[in-house]
Design a protein that fits this description.
By secondary structure, the chain is of the alpha+beta class. It contains 3 helices and 5 strands. The chain is flat, with a radius of gyration of 18 Å. The protein binds zinc ion.
């Protein structure tokens, strides 16, 4: 007789997350610090990632979905998932930093 609540090892959890990721059911967000997060929010959206405090803000934008659909259609590509990240400083960290500009300096 099998136990009703078998112990699930952490390795099993990670394996399951990996399978879900491969199926495009979740998105893995990796960061320079090496940690991985799983984002269950699969609707086309933009992740605003603060490189200072690590906060992630989901920004839903209709235009984002239209661009992804247009690009995928043009390339005859069957999309399983997508991710759009914008890295920078959130409003809180930007205010703390004081003089940090909202947009990066233009290149010369
Ligand atoms: Zn921040």
């Amino acid at each position: 007789v099998k136990a009703l609540h078998p112990t699930v090892s952490l390795a099993t959890v990670y394996k399951t997350l990996q399978i879900l990721r491969e199926l495009g059911l979740i998105q893995e967000l990796s960061f320079p610090q090496g940690e991985a997060r799983f984002d269950p929010y699969m609707k086309p959206h933009i992740n605003l990632v603060c490189t200072k405090c690590g906060s992630i803000t989901d920004l839903e934008d209709r235009a984002t979905q239209e661009i992804i659909e247009r690009v995928a259609t043009a390339a005859k590509f069957a999309t399983l998932g997508q991710r759009l990240d914008i890295y920078g400083l959130c409003e809180k960290c930007r205010k703390k930093a004081g003089t940090a500009p909202i947009t990066p300096a233009t290149r010369n």
